[in-house]
């Protein structure tokens, strides 16, 4: 078994109100950016560094989490935004240029729990590798 990891986070853990609604939402938007869900059961699901499980009973909604997914191009930003809205997300800023730096093109949605989910393309760039592959010894 092998898995992929980025460089900044080991993982991000979201605790959600409705695991099935979150599975539908994240499957739809992650498919657009080419990141498959690679493990799941009735208690959680995970895709690369993202781990999602049910919130503790009585936990408040929308804890103010912000996640930003990478998009290969501007068209992917549009497709992600459309997929998110179709899968139960709410618009929080449609696709367009942002003032963060030249070439920053992004869209924002709120997931079923009110977390702010971004997809961003930073403009033309070259990667040294598509991902880091980890194979347990």
Describe this structure in words.
The chain has 137 residues and is α+β, with helices and mostly antiparallel strands. The protein has 2 helices and 11 strands; from the N terminus they run E-E-H-E-E-E-E-H-E-E-E-E-E. The strands form 3 sheets. Strands 6, 7, 8, 9 and 10 form a 5-stranded mixed beta sheet that branches. A 4-stranded mixed beta sheet has the order 2-5-4-3, covered by helices on one side. Strand 4 and strand 5 (50-54) form a beta hairpin. Helix 1 packs antiparallel against helix 2 (74-86). It starts with a strand and ends with a strand. The relative contact order is 0.24.
- Strand % is 25-35%
Distance between the termini: 10 Å
Q: Helix- and strand-based class?
A: alpha+beta
Number of helices: 2
Range of helix content: 10-25%
Q: How many E strands? A: 11
Q: What is the overall shape?
A: globular
In the predicted model, the low-confidence regions spanning at least 5 consecutive residues are: none
Oligomer: single chain
Q: What is the radius of gyration computed over CA atoms, rounded to a whole number of angstroms? A: 15 Å
Mean pLDDT across all amino acids = 86
Main sheet overview: 5 strands, mixed
Topology pattern, helix = H, strand = E: EEHEEEEHEEEEE
Give structural attributes.
11 strands, 137 residues, four-stranded mixed sheet
């Amino acid at each position: 078994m092998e898995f992929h990891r980025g460089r900044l986070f080991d993982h991000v853990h979201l605790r959600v109100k409705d695991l099935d609604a979150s599975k539908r939402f994240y499957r739809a938007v992650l498919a657009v950016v080419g990141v498959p869900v690679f493990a799941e059961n009735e208690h959680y699901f995970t895709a690369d560094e993202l781990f999602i499980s049910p919130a503790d009973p009585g936990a408040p909604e929308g804890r103010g989490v912000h996640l930003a997914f990478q998009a290969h191009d501007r068209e992917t930003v549009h497709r992600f935004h459309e997929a998110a809205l179709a899968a139960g997300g709410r618009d929080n800023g449609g696709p367009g240029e942002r003032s963060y730096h030249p070439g920053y093109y992004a869209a924002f949605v709120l997931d079923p729990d009110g977390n702010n989910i971004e997809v961003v393309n930073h403009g033309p760039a070259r990667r040294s590798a598509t991902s880091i592959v980890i194979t347990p010894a």
